[in-house]
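User: For documentation purposes, I need each entry recorded in a consistent format: the amino acid sequence on its own, followed directly by the corresponding structure tokens. There are two entries in this batch. Please keep commentary to a minimum and don't merge the entries.

Assistant: Recorded as requested. Entry 1:
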Amino acid sequence: MTTDHDAGQAGGPGPARRDAERTRAAILDAAIEEFSERGLLGGRVDAVVERTSTVKRMVYYYFGSKERLYQAALIESYRRIRQTEGALRLADLDPETALRALVRATLAHQENNAAFVRLVMFENTLAGGAIHLMDDEVRALNHSVVLLLEDLLARGRDAGVFRSGADAPTALDLHQVISSMAFFRVSNRATFRELFGRDMVEGAERDHVLELIETTVLRLVLADPAA
């Protein structure tokens, strides 16, 4: 997913390469914020530049166009949550503890990166749906969470902790449930609060909501949910 410009810059001397990486990272950070607030159609490259200490020509130097910048921001947002999951070292934990850690990390990441949630929502509203994620490299990046969960479920079933059989959830099922509840908690926070009086992110019921989600996920997979 790198451009020819990126490749050429990466081959430069150490300090120059680090400067280029910092500039590119700063542009991506700004782009994530801009496009998460206004989407691809409403977002402006000038606004991205205003959020950084760089100049407009550097944005086009690294990314080529506004759409490619938007795509890079979207992919970088996914890369960050996959990196968060990978850093948990779940293979070093017992299956139940590992699953709890993954749920908590996902909830925390979504809460602390609301721009990611908004950006994904914008992408889903575009005609064609998720056209900026139609790339084998991007699919492989995101498939890492499924592989992680497959290993986790296999270890749990071998240990007799997680249920098995035809009705047992697959790794993709589990990812969908975790992702859905973590995403909804942030994406629908305002409407849920106004309609039902429950703030899922802050306030008196925050801990209850976190425990509710964690318990729901564990009961989906535990061989003995009452244990």
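Entry 2:
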Amino acid sequence: MKQVLAILLLLYSAQSFSKDCDHDAKTFRCVKYVRNYDADTITFDIPNVHPLIGKHISVRVRHVDTPEIKGKLPCEKEAARTAKRLIENLLKNAKRIDLENADKDKYFRILADVIVDGKPIKDILLKNNLAYAYEGKTKQKMNWCNRIPANQ
């Protein structure tokens, strides 16, 4: 991943890019939201990076796992849709999005802390019981029927 990040930095263009949004080896600043598959897999455009590398890039949110859109139980699917909508609304209305501590995950996606207007989205998901702490090992079996708040 260090080589990929180095390439991204080499391809970086300073044209009309705020100094406040400069990328570095572990952080992509001022990224643009494209869409999210679920609450922990999000597609972004990374400005001032070659489109081959920076356009429509899948990013996995670091430190959490969320319910699966294609889960087996109706409760899991509903929790997944709720989490997806929460993140979609948050990102659509964000003034600024940064990807911090960028690395690669086991599927070669970017793995990063997604920071929206200064707040990590993992904290928002955990606070709303729409995620659990996850560090990339074997997933725990989760009963999302017991986790999702009834009023969401």
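Summary note for entry 2:
Residues 81 and 98 are 24 Å apart (CA to CA).
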